[in-house]
Amino acid sequence: MAENQDGQEKSQEPTAKRVTEARRKGQIPRSRELNTMAITMFGLASLIMLGPRFASGLHTLFEEQFSLPRKDIFDTAAMMAHLIKAIGDALQMLLPFFGLMVAIAILSSVVLGGLNVSFEAMQPKLSKINPLQGFKRIFSVKGLMELVKSIGKFALVGSATVLLLNSLSNDLLGLSQLDIDRAIGKGMTLVAWSSVALASTLILMAAIDVPFQLWQHRHDLKMTQQEVRDELKETEGRPEVKGRIRQMQREIAQRRMMQEVPKADVVVTNPTHYAVALRYDPDKMYAPIVVAMGKDLIAANIRDIAAAHDVPQVEAPELARAIYFNTELNQAIPAALFLAVAQLLAYVFQLRAWQETGGDIPTPPQDYPVPEDYRHA
């Protein structure tokens, strides 16, 4: 297994962030064997297809440039004009071939790993010319694989050449018995198709090199467990920072909740451990909603704010616990508690009416109908 500089085992698959950073640095899988094979095969194939056009073009070019008028031979300007025309005709004849080769070179380079432009990889680095780093690359596993590929390529192409020459020996010897035109034509045909046959051996090298480059790239990007943990901390934040953020979020939520207490219609208490503030607007709400709730210190703060803003406080231990444990903040109370809360609000409205008009003091309910499933000790 691979190890990093600290000797830790790289056993974890690379994360998406690691792969993205590698691409930014120009670390992507590339296969020189695939590139060489594609350029060689397509180059030879295009030469065979464009051969008649090249032959015709060269024939015309030689005919024009080797049959000059006598006056042009002694005219420097005329000779320069002939040279420029010859170069232009040659480039025009070869331009399709050159364009095809450039396209094949680009496509074969990006087919493995995709198109990637890394300005970071273009920056000059002293490590690239460091002899020690160079020796490390030469004697690394990747360097050993490159040596094995070179030896294998030489052996493969050499063996194929020997077999090909042996199979074509009679045809090659037979060229001496043909007239010059036929011998040149047949010889060119033999050279062309022999080159294609030899170049086909590079397909095997590419078929071996491409999987190896993909494996090597993935292997180089593997991470240790510590690297994965460090990246997770950088991505999601360190635990102490996240804890502080959650604490601040709770404090902000509590401050917002406390700001809603003065708007409540009633605060139901335990009387000391729990406090729940309810608000009900019959024109806008189908049921009362909980605008603030808490226990112990938060409950004490709710009671203090309610007292400071003259919000009625009613002691109903079972109802306060039932609402606290079965309702979320800023949500309506459960349907099972409608009747109990209705009695509580009826008492609060009666209390307000007494404060405004006087009369007999209303008596608070003694027993709220809290279902057994909603009771909490």
Structure in words:
The protein is mostly helical. Helices cover 65% and strands 5% of the residues. The chain has a four-stranded mixed beta sheet with strand order 3-2-1-4, with helices on both faces. Helix 7 packs antiparallel against helix 9. The chain is elongated and about 135 Å long.
Keywords, separated by commas or semicolons:
377 residues; mainly alpha; four-stranded mixed β-sheet; 4 strands
How many strands, what sense, and barrel or not for the largest sheet?
A: 4 strands, mixed
Helix content: 55-70%
How large a portion of the residues is in β-strands, by DSSP E?
A: 5-15%
Low-confidence stretches: none
Category from helices, strands and their pairing: mainly alpha
What's the overall geometry? elongated
Q: What is the overall pLDDT average?
A: 80
Count of runs of 4 or more consecutive helical residues: 14
The quaternary organization reads as single chain
**Total strand segments:** 4
